[in-house]
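Handover notes (outgoing to incoming on-call)

Open items:
1. Large ribosomal subunit protein uL24: sequence verified, structure written out, both below. Nothing else pending on this one.
2. Nothing else urgent.
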Amino acid sequence: MRPKLHVKRGDTVIVVSGKDRGKTGKVIAVYPKKFRVLVEGVNIVKKAVRPTPDNPQGGFREMEAPLHAAKVRPVCPNGHPVRVKKKILEDGTKVRVCHRCGAALDG
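Large ribosomal subunit protein uL24 structure tokens:
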């Protein structure tokens, strides 16, 4: 059984391990089958680009690469990286909350 992702597109996350440790950014895309996330401004790689009519020079382009979802943690409204737990409210809706303080992470 594959584990569920703890982050969603649009979440603000902080990188907790690797070369970009300590950087924060917004989740651009989520790839649940590969358990990877794409975070803006994090894990920048250089990609060779062939010459095209739009870019006749070609060359190198810097872009974000996906990184393993276990390397990122959502940022609590208080500003620290947290684990996520799920809570069911009185009206029956399920929300993600901060494991430390209980603040809601969803909208």
